[in-house]
Amino acid sequence: MNRIYLDHAATTPMRPEVLEAMLPYLREQYGNPSSIYTEGREARKALDRARDRIAKVLGASSPREIIFTSGGSEADNLAIKGAAFALKNKGNHIITSAIEHHAVYDTCRYLEKHGFKVTLVPVDSYGIVDPAAVEAALTPETILVSIMHANNEIGTIQPIAEISKILRERGILFHTDAVQTVGHIPVDVDELGVDMLSLSAHKFYGPKGVGALYVRKGIRLHPLIHGGGQEQNRRAGTENVAGIVGMAEALVLAAGEMGEEAPRQRELRDRLIQGILARIPHTRLNGHPEKRLPGNVSVCFEYIEGEALLLNLDMQGIAASSGSACTSGSLEPSHVLLALGLPHEIAHGSLRLTLGRGTTAAEIDAVLEVLPGIVEKLRQMSPLYDANAGCKAH
After folding, report:
1. Taking the CB of residue 276, how many other CB atoms lie within 10 A of it?
2. Is 326 a catalytic residue?
3. Same-domain check for residues 90 and 230
């Protein structure tokens, strides 16, 4: 039986075209882009072209606004720590949301140990940040706000442009973690109004271990990594030329196909959501029903544990997740689901199914065939379910 992969929010398979674009820089064109001889200049040309291609997709005004990193987590760290330490003489207050990825959430917690104050703005039951809540949290000491473009677990898309208007009037830096949106929905840095934006290649069919941070011209950042003048003195270390070339190729391909692929995934997503809610009682959809990523399905099943559900799905040839891939080994319920107001026992029964380019209607139907039986089997083993006599009557 062919396996069904429904964890594209965790990572995506690299496209053959991307590998082809990378191969010359893994074989023949191995020069160091900082070297001045021919091999180095060829590598530098490849970097410059990749930077230009990525800048154009994001709507950046200059390729120099793109800083290459090892991935989304480093980009988030560079944006938040870099801005915080560069602006510490102006203030020490940072605002973020209660549902950020740990690359943002934990970075802000780290800064609290170094004299910064962090405010977590709440979200509503759909996981949406109210721009008015961000405005209310501002103080004269606020130097940075970081709100993700779309949540990695529940898929909810945030009102970034509305938040930006509030911050721009006050001259406060605005960063967004767009790791889940770049390559999947339109992302234009000017339309969003952000000063910094993080992205990661392996979320849009590029290689792992490479990402980028968009930094609007004129913004000062304290570097995380010292030791060389690469990336305009903002990120020391010889650039991953092959990975960067692959990232640019993957992004251009994804952007070109978005107009057709996003509606296709949206249709399959809604088919899966409706099928789950219709066939499995005591189930709730997590996140906003419409303002969500095209390929994201997040649900909670009452009276079961998400980990057992994932193992049973895996035995049926289906790869899925209970939330963020970075925390899938944790026994604690997702901080995102708890922020929505879900009790621990329901949050533990979460399932995230994320669709991709290769997902078919037949695969969605196959999941809908096996999932109800797995949930029912696990519920029969649950003392909570047995104790709830009304459950079996539904």
Report:
1. 21
2. yes
3. yes
